[in-house]
Design goal:
Blueprint: H1 2-26, H2 29-49, H3 55-77, H4 84-103
Length: about 100
C-alpha cells in the first residue's frame, strides 16, 4: 500500500507541474487552485508512504517520477524537443527509480 501511495504521489506531482504550466499560460485562479490541490495531494501521499519507506528512497523515487513524467508530458503534449540525449537521460532517471525500488 505504501508503494502504491508513493507512485500515485509521483503522478500527482506531475499534475502539479502541469498546473505550473497552466499558471504561466492562462494566469487565472483556477490554474493556481489546480496546482495547489495537485501538490497537496502529492505531499500527503508522499508523507503517508514515508511511514514505511525510508525518506531517502521515497523522496528520490517521488522526484524521479515527477521529473521523468513531466519531461515526457512536455514532449507529448507541449511539443518540446525529443532529442536522443533527452530521451537517454529520461531513461536514466526511470532506470535509477526502478533500481531504487528493486534494492529496497
Amino acid at each position: 500500500m505504501y508503494w502504491t501511495a508513493l507512485i500515485i504521489a509521483g503522478l500527482f506531482e506531475m499534475l502539479g507541474v502541469l498546473g505550473i504550466n497552466f499558471i504561466n499560460k492562462y494566469k487565472n485562479w483556477q490554474s493556481v487552485a489546480f496546482m495547489i490541490i495537485m501538490f497537496s495531494i502529492s505531499f500527503v501521499l508522499l508523507s503517508y508512504s514515508m511511514n514505511e519507506i525510508t525518506m531517502s528512497v521515497a523522496y528520490a523515487i517521488w522526484t524521479g517520477i515527477g521529473a521523468a513524467g513531466s519531461a515526457i508530458m512536455g514532449i507529448i503534449f507541449f511539443k518540446e524537443p525529443a532529442t536522443r540525449l533527452r530521451i537517454l537521460f529520461i531513461f536514466c532517471i526511470i532506470s535509477a527509480t526502478i533500481g531504487l525500488k528493486l534494492i529496497t
